[in-house]
């Protein structure tokens, strides 16, 4: 058992700032035929700190005016994504938004994980409400405890394998979301009245109707309650954008679709929630329920979500979806049995996405906890 060695980072590597060619916006600096890449902040965010390919290139002419690294290297972002560590595996020019750890005597993957753990603590070098301002002196003077080289390697390998597992789960979640998106495109009828993909045994044309022809609205049961007057309980309290609180009592009991009336936080992905059981709804969400034998409530949620709701909104900064506009919305509906089959399929896909997200959150929480416990 060896004690970890406490020392400053500048004693373990030469820490220098990148250098940018000027002007970087000038096309003459860029050349797709160059074998030296140009690292951008977008590369860091998209590839989660391990760079294996770049989205732009820099020409030979620019290399004399920037720092060019031609072997895997560890960086620390000091602009935009301040405090984010990066391991770059490609030949690249490194601009002045990064610090470079040259000739390190530590395991790069070990230090990458340490920097991930330490990222929140850089905030002490910034003023309240302003961006953290890091430089080579601040980072170099940071005291770090290092285990032996062999222990660094074992810790690095452990976290690298954990990161691989997280990445695989993220990819699976993304695949499920892409599957859902593709099915929404293929399994719902557009102007033709016939979807591209259908369950076996169904061939009838989908019928056009108004939402009000197949659904009832229960806005009259809504009761808004300001936060300090709500009585704590187990019933979800819904507003325009979903659950806001949990309260005692309920306003609705059954299967409903909630559609934001005003205060929607995302017009591109308009807030629509399928709910079942006892709920409390305030006056910022319309409450809809399918008429039995005519429509499936869950299916209506998907069909409404496909519609161009934004075109129905009125008002300025706080756009509003009036009840009449909502109930006069045009829909394409198949027979109730086909609606139910489609709704069941999408429910299964959404359950798979939820479970995958749960597994992913558990892995991320595990890593966060271990980062705090395995580094001194």
Q: Which features characterize this protein?
A:
elongated, alpha+beta, six-stranded mixed sheet, 376 residues, 23% strand, five-stranded mixed sheet
Describe the structure.
- This protein is α+β, with helices and mostly antiparallel strands.
- Helices cover 32% and strands 23% of the residues.
- It has helices spanning 41-46, 60-63, 108-118, 136-140, 149-186, 211-214, 297-306, 323-327, 336-374; strands spanning 5-8, 14-17, 37-38, 50-51, 67-69, 73-77, 85-88, 92-94, 98-102, 143-146, 207-210, 215-217, 232-239, 242-247, 252-260, 272-281, 285-290, 330-333.
- A six-stranded mixed sheet has the order 12-17-15-16-13-14. A five-stranded mixed sheet has the order 2-9-6-7-4. The protein has a three-stranded mixed sheet with strand order 3-8-5, with no helix packed on it.
- The radius of gyration is 27 Å and the shape is elongated.
What's a quick, concise take on this entry?
The chain has 376 residues and is α+β, with helices and mostly antiparallel strands. It contains nine helices and 18 strands.
The percentage helix is: 25-40%
Taking the sheet with the most strands, its summary is: 6 strands, mixed
Number of strands: 18
Q: What is the chains' assembly state?
A: single chain
On the 0-100 scale, what is the average pLDDT?
A: 89
How would you summarize the topology of this molecule?
Elements: E1 5-8, E2 14-17, E3 37-38, H1 41-46, E4 50-51, H2 60-63, E5 67-69, E6 73-77, E7 85-88, E8 92-94, E9 98-102, H3 108-118, H4 136-140, E10 143-146, H5 149-186, E11 207-210, H6 211-214, E12 215-217, E13 232-239, E14 242-247, E15 252-260, E16 272-281, E17 285-290, H7 297-306, H8 323-327, E18 330-333, H9 336-374
Helix pairs in contact: 3-5, 5-9
């Amino acid at each position: 058992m060896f004690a970890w060695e406490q020392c400053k980072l500048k004693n373990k590597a030469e820490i220098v700032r990148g250098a940018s060619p000027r002007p970087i916006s000038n096309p003459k600096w860029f050349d797709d035929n160059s074998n030296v890449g140009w690292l951008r902040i977008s590369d860091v965010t998209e590839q989660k700190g391990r760079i294996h390919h770049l989205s732009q290139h820099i020409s030979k002419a620019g290399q004399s005016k920037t720092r060019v690294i031609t072997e895997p290297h560890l960086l620390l972002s000091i602009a935009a994504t301040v405090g984010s560590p990066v391991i770059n595996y490609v030949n690249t020019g490194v601009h002045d938004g990064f610090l470079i750890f040259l000739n390190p005597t530590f395991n790069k993957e070990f230090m990458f994980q340490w920097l991930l753990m330490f990222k929140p603590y850089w905030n002490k070098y910034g003023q309240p409400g302003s961006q953290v301002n890091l430089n080579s002196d601040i980072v170099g003077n940071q005291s770090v405890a290092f285990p032996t080289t062999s222990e660094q390697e074992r810790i690095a390998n452990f976290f690298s394998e954990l990161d691989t597992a997280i990445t695989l789960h993220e990819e699976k979640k993304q695949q499920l979301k892409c599957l859902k998106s593709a099915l929404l495109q293929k399994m719902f009828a557009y102007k033709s009245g016939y979807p591209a993909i259908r369950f076996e045994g169904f061939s009838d044309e989908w019928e056009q109707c108004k939402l009000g022809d197949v659904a009832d609205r229960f806005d009259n049961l809504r009761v808004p309650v300001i936060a300090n007057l709500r009585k704590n309980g187990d019933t979800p309290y819904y507003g325009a954008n979903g659950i806001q609180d949990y309260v005692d009592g309920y306003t609705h009991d059954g299967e409903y679709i909630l559609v934001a009336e005003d205060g929607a936080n995302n017009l591109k992905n308009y807030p629509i929630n399928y709910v079942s059981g006892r709920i409390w709804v305030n006056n910022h969400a319309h409450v809809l329920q399918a008429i039995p034998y005519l429509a499936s409530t869950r299916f209506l949620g998907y069909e409404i979500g496909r519609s161009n709701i934004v075109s129905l909104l009125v008002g300025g900064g706080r756009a509003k979806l009036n009840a009449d506009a909502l109930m006069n919305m045009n829909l394409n509906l198949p027979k109730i049995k086909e609606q139910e089959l489609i709704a069941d399929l999408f429910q299964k896909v959404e359950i798979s996405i939820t479970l995958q997200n749960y597994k992913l959150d558990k892995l991320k929480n595990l890593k966060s906890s271990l980062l705090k416990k395995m580094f001194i």
